[in-house]
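Researcher: Let's continue the batch. This sequence belongs to ATPase, and it's 341 residues. Same format as the previous ones, please.
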Amino acid sequence: MDSPGIVHLVDRTPQVTGDEMVAALVPPPQFDGATFETYQADAAYPSQQHAKDQLSAFARGQAEQPRGGLFRRPKKVEPLKPGVYLDGGFGVGKTHLLASIYHAMPARRKYFGSFIEYTALVGALGYQNTVKLFLGSDLLCIDEFELDDPGDTMVMTRLLGELVASGTRLAATSNTPPNALGEGRFAAQDFLREIHAMSDSFETIRIDGTDYRQRAVDGAAAVLDPGAYEAAIHDAAASRAVSDDAFGDLVTHLAKVHPSRYIRLIEGLGMIGLRDVEQLQDQSAALRFVAFIDRAYDAQVPIRATGRPLNEVFGDEMLAGGYRKKYLRAISRLIALTTAA
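Model: Same format as before. Here are the structure tokens for ATPase:
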């Protein structure tokens, strides 16, 4: 962590080399100890336990054995597919299960990263060099597989196709536009049209449930008045590095930093301070802010803010659009981060 004191995110322009990007392809700190045993399946949603069993078997390199009765033959076990795709709403533990696969699989070479991190690596190293880097790896975990950018999607699916052909196993979580593909659901056919060459490589596993953070998305993120904000920032800065920025300035700055570097933007921080929060009007800015919040949540950096509640930064039009699922996930995380100790 950086030295105690106040810093400004708008003054940070982090640079990341290809080697540093590769070294960072591990589960985020909050999932360092994630295991199948620590995943608490909700009995009200049997798909959670079923997914846990399936993925545990996948990590062991085995297909789940169907249970047969005393006088019944067990059903034939289908050959294990090289990839699993976890589909479900936000807060049902998909990333926890993905990290559990990573930790449980006895692999010599394995990688864990978000879709954005992998596409950024291709941009930094070039496609062929990225293929060479991952060729021969045992496992590739991809969190928040994006379908927003057709170009990035096809580059990634081409890369995954080459890796599967060489024996690499894949595990991914979905992040699809719900108004196009169905609220909280993963439409396999739409995905298969995007990755037509990969259609036989993935087993889609549905995980139902409610947000484990137990926070309604129509709840409110914590807001401080200016005096309380100043006190919170300065108190925290006595023992740790704390950022303090005007919300509008940060949003403008995020456009100048590639999303793959957002984790470096908040590196070493013990708290993020945002003054004068206002509703976002530009969808590109909103999506960059979502990516920023994802990294802050991964790093578990609490947020203190003034102005409009952060759960209201995405307007009704955005919440009714194709990126609704992303915005709802971000709102859930913003409520958690602004109320975190």
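Researcher: Any comment?
Model: The chain has two domains: 5-16+214-338, 33-207.
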